Amino acid sequence: QVYVVFSEELKCWCRALVESVRCQADGFQLGCFLVDYAKYCSVASENIRVLAGAFAKIPHRAKKCRLHCTKPLTLHIDYCENTAKIGPAKKWDTAAIQHFRKLIE
Which biological process annotations from GO are given for this protein (predicted)? Predict the structure, then answer.
């Protein structure tokens, strides 16, 4: 279900999907995906509202997607053997993400 949340970063109300809920000392923090900005953010529970009828039917501007059969790689350096090999990684390197964004632009 899509909700409306206040994004501190964007300083406005945005449509969002709630992906996680974390309990903290001062209340709950919601992990949200902003469907019109393709951004992830954390929102306090008091900054979430139910989306009014007609607005819920407007299509999202952003969609979550993945690159088919594309796995993250990283450079593994062995200082003892003085070698470097490209191999699988658990997550994408920051440099790889920046390079991919430049290619898209």
Answer: germ-line stem cell division
Fold assignment, 2-57: SH3 type barrels. (2.30.30)
48-50 and 2-7 beta bridge pairing: antiparallel
pTM of the model: 0.59
Alpha carbons 20 and 42: distance in angstroms, whole number: 9
Rounded CA-CA distance 29/31 in Å is: 7
pLDDT given for residue 47 in this prediction: 92
Domain with CATH 2.30.30 in the chain: 2-57
85: helix, strand or coil? strand
Chain CA centroid to CA 27, Å: 22
